[in-house]
Each structure stands twice: as structure tokens, then as C-alpha cells.
Amino acid sequence: MTDKAEPPLLDRHAEALDLFTDRVHAVRTDQWDAPTPCTEWTVRDLVNHLASEQLWVPPLVRDGASVEAVGDAFDGDMLGPDPVTSWDTAAAASRAAFREPGALDRTVHLSFGDTSAAFYCGQMTTDLVVHAWDLSRAVGADETLPDALVNFSVREISPYAAELEKSGLFAAAVEPPAGADVRTKLLALLGRRV
After folding, report:
1. Cβ atoms of 51 and 86 closer than 8 Å
2. Residue 51: which residues within 8 A CB-CB, separation 6 or more?
3. Which of 60, 61, 66, 74 has a beta carbon 3.0–4.6 Å from 109's, enabling a disulfide?
């Protein structure tokens, strides 16, 4: 008897994009300026950050561009007057670039050096999962995260979680409460207090 195989990385990435998209569509008009668990970020700032990240995927994965070549193209406001549509467009671009034949076999040129597109996709997936929780908390949406995505994210991020704090992109890890579930442990690892 064999274990059921883990779904492919692209399936997890799609699930994470769908999860974050669901949360973006739950944002009410009066919530875009609301605070989030990400200190100094409003709901709009958080969604803009994720939209910008998705917009980076086509030039890095599809075109083989370097961070330097892309420059500041995705700095500033990527959401414009219609944040939900802008998010949907950015998410679709990311999904399409990662799903191109052979995309995950490519090398991407990130700020910290060259790495596999598969590793980059795993990072992006985990970022979407954690920020889906941030957005849920900010707008009062369902904070449940699918177990499969939580388990994937824990496996993905555990080897380099300490480096993320040094990068300034995540807060220092906090001690999870006694008896914490896997979701709470993941969030605590990335500086969130549940």
C-alpha cells in the first residue's frame, strides 16, 4: 500500500491564489484603509503588496529577467481605482506564467541570487497563505486556512524561517501557545499572534 502522493506544486499555488482572491473579494469598500496584522500596512497596502508580487512572476519566470532589469516597474500603487479587478489581473498573470510548459524547470534571478522557479513558486504559495490569514483578520473574514496549504507552508518555510526575519519581510517568530495547532504554529513562526 502506498501513500497518496502530494498534489503538484502548481495545484497548491492555484489553491493559495484562489484563497487570497476569495479574501480580496470579501473586502468591503469601507475596509481598504483598515489596519492589518502586518504593522504599518492597511488592507490596501497588503493587497497591493501581493498584487505587486504576482506582477513580478511573468518577467522573472516567463522572460528570465533579473530584479535589476525589472527595476521599480512594480513599485507604488498597483491597484488603482479598482483594487479587486487589479488583484484579479495580477493573480491571473502569475498563474499563467507559472503554468507555462517547463516554467518550474527554469531558473529565476531573485534579489538574493539565482534559484529554481519551483522554489520561487513555493515561496509565493506560502506568502499567499499567510497573507490570506492577515487579510481575513483585517476584514473579519473566515480565518480558516485549508490544512493542506498550512502543511505545505510549514514544510516550505521551516528550513529558512529565521532568514525571513533578517530580510525584514517578516516579524520575529513568537512562541505559540501550548497545544497550538499547525496553523497557529505556522503563523507564530512568521511573527503573527493568533
Report:
1. yes
2. 78, 79, 86, 87, 90, 91
3. 66
C-alpha cell at 174: 513568537
CA atoms in the 13 A half-sphere facing the CB of 142: 7
* The model's pTM: 0.90
- For residues 70, 92, 146, 149, the Cα torsion angle rounded to the nearest 10 degrees is -40
- Residue 167 has what pLDDT? 60
Per-residue buried b or exposed e for 171-182, using 16+ beta carbons within 10 Å of the residue's own CB: eebeebeeeeee
Please report where in the chains the cell 500500500 appears, as a residue: 1
The structural domains of the chain, ordered by start, are 9-20+36-189 (1.20.120)
Alpha-helix residue ranges (DSSP H) falling in 4-146:
9-25, 43-57, 67-70, 83-99, 117-139
